[in-house]
Specification:
Length: about 270
């Protein structure tokens, strides 16, 4: 009777130790079977805007234990996120993404295991080719107008347009100066049309039709200067087709006045050598 309690206590301790040992072995077994990727290599090729991610994640069955998600951050913001339901093979895989980035951008890639843990790897973008802008120019004169201007048009009416085309991003920065017009201009546009031909307006510089990206009202008087940007994502976008027209000399600048509503000075944009 006096020894029953110690025996019960010893039995309880033995069960407790056995349970702890089994639990520890179970945890070790699960940890061994569930693990995050062991390594990752990140390479960005600026020539073709591709990000290659090579992941080492050795598993027994790539359909049950795999890289489940890859997230790509650029300068701290998530720009890509892909989910998977299996791994390429039992050792890991290589993943290729299309990603636009500039020199100096910081990329971070994170890979999540379907069972346990994740791995991340940063990379700095270097070696992206920087293209030189294409310079275009147009001399604006009354003589180049297709519709003859009125006799009262001053002989001094003239202008100059200079534009820088970023071919990679389809972005045109332009500056236009004019002088000696018959009055303050009412409108100005880029038109699509060959030399000596009339064409429709494709981008408002100022005036009608009004767009958010257009320059405000021109300066008072018959002399002035305006500038702006014609972009790929604007209301009147600088599309790939329009860029080709620019480079082919099929876009002109036209400045309109009350005296010459069809245009007082015009010039064809041409690429400078």
């Amino acid at each position: 009777m006096l020894n029953s309690r110690p025996r019960n206590f010893r039995s309880y301790r033995l069960v407790q130790v056995s349970f702890t040992l089994i639990l520890s072995l179970l945890v070790i077994s699960i940890s061994a079977a569930s693990h995050p990727p062991s390594s990752m290599e990140v390479d960005y090729a600026g020539e073709d805007n591709t990000l290659t991610v090579s992941i080492t994640h050795r598993v027994g069955n790539p359909s049950n234990h795999y890289v489940e998600k890859i997230s790509v951050l650029k300068n701290g913001t998530t720009v890509l996120e892909e989910n998977y339901d299996e791994q390429q093979d039992s050792s890991g895989g290589e993943y290729v993404f299309e990603l636009s980035a500039q020199n100096g951008d910081r990329i971070e890639v994170q890979a999540d295991c379907s069972r346990f843990g994740s791995i991340s790897q940063p990379a700095e973008v270097k070696g992206v080719p920087v293209s030189e802008p294409i310079i275009l120019q147009a001399w604006l004169t009354k003589e180049t107008e297709v519709q003859e201007v009125k006799e009262k048009t001053p002989g001094s009416a003239a202008g100059l347009a200079i534009a820088l085309l970023d071919r990679k991003n389809n972005r045109l920065e332009f500056s236009i100066t004019y002088k000696g017009l018959s009055d303050r201009p009412t409108m100005a546009h880029f038109h699509r049309g060959k030399k000596g031909e009339e064409g429709p307006p494709v981008r408002t510089i100022f005036g009608e039709p009004e767009i958010d990206e257009a320059t405000g009202a021109p300066p008072e008087g018959n002399n002035g200067f305006v500038s702006g940007v014609w972009k790929e994502d604007g209301t009147q976008p600088l599309t790939e087709e329009m860029v080709e027209a620019l480079l082919s000399g099929e876009v002109y600048v036209n400045v309109h006045t009350e005296l010459n509503p069809a245009g007082e000075i015009r010039g064809q944009l041409v690429e400078l050598d």
